[in-house]
TrEMBL record, chains A, B:
Lineage, uppermost ranks: Bacteria, Pseudomonadati, Pseudomonadota, Alphaproteobacteria, Rhodobacterales
Biological source species: Litoreibacter albidus
Entry binding sites for Zn(2+): C111, C114, C151, C154
Database matches in Pfam families: FUR (PF01475)
Cofactor note: Binds 1 zinc ion per subunit.
Keywords noted in UniProt: DNA-binding, Metal-binding, Repressor, Transcription, Transcription regulation, Zinc
A Gene Ontology BP annotation from the UniProt entry: negative regulation of DNA-templated transcription
Protein's UniProt name: Fur family transcriptional regulator, zinc uptake regulator
Length: 159, 159
DNA sequence: GCGCGACACGTTATACAATAACACAGGTGC
DNA sequence: GCACCTGTGTTATTGTATAACGTGTCGCGC
């Protein structure tokens, strides 16, 4: 599975493709894909890993697109809200979505050595937990599923 | 399942039992269960919900057990490291473990209305995600599984 | 007894993450 | 013009977490 993420790939098409897909989605949904939002999405796609809000903000500041935290957070909130990016709770950081457009409940594999993050899909309230929830009458609305470990490229590396 | 957590129960035994179990574990493993660590565990058990580090710290300060953030974080790190408590990444908060002693990979049901948190068990690197990881050669060491929704007691409540 | 390392604890300072609150600017509909 | 909505700019503040350094204590080998 290519989109699973630890492989090398043509990164420029990865960015342009991602941006194009989001432009399309916004057009269809009547959302405003403003310059700040676009730039933040590009930054996430460029980095291709989880990025902290303040790292985003530093870049925006250098480029004159905004210098205060709310600027970055508002753009990130927009992207997350509409499924174009995800927040990695474990890292308090953000990453571009690997399959924008789909309505999905993502899961992540996080490498603790190189910080790479791969997105994959889960069954919405699936498996064991969904079962336990149903038994007790708990209604699941959203799940966070993040696995931490070592990616194939970092296997065997010291520390 | 009683330990799943949204039901009423005898809370005093819940605390004393939890502390006793941890004392026992520490004795066996040769760990130091110091006053600060004990008090923090008690606080988590008393609250019986996710508690922020600074809320813990406030109480420690009132009781003269420490006044600076590292005091609370060190105790919490100890408890988490040895499986006596867990961090809820989604809330940036901590909760006492419901089955201390067992070596387990916990999952949580978080009520967005009343903030109750129930701990349940998962298969270690289970299901879909474990499969995807194996296929790509990713080694999972730890998983975060947190479901957000509405608990049975809050179903139908306004807002 | 003495030196030493391991570990817990105390304290200062700082970094990083997130939001509240208010002002302003541009469109759109009437 | 005017009300309304959405996005942006800015100031200030709160919340979360760690770096770095010093102190005290205990157990161990000598
Ligand atoms: Zn996604
Ligand atoms: Zn890696
Ligand atoms: Zn547990
Ligand atoms: Zn509830």
């Amino acid at each position: 599975m290519d989109s699973l993420g630890f492989k090398h790939h043509d990164h420029s098409t990865c960015i342009s493709g991602g941006v194009a897909a989001v432009i399309q989605s916004c057009k269809e949904a009547g959302l405003q894909f403003t310059p700040v939002r676009k730039r933040v999405l590009e930054l996430l796609l460029e980095r291709h890993r989880a990025v902290g809000a303040y790292e985003i903000l530093d870049t925006l500041r250098e480029e004159g697109l905004g210098s205060q935290p709310p600027v970055a957070y508002r753009a990130l909130d927009f992207l997350v809200k509409h499924g174009f990016a995800h927040k990695i709770e474990r890292l308090n950081a953000f990453i571009a979505c690997a399959h924008p457009g789909d309505n999905h409940s993502p899961a992540f594999l996080i490498c603790r050595s190189c910080d790479a993050v791969a997105e994959t899909a889960t069954v919405a309230a699936g498996g064991r937990l969904g079962q336990a929830a149903e038994e007790t009458g708990f209604t699941i609305e959203r799940t966070v599923l993040e696995a931490e470990g070592v990616c194939p490229n970092c296997q065997g590396k010291p520390e």
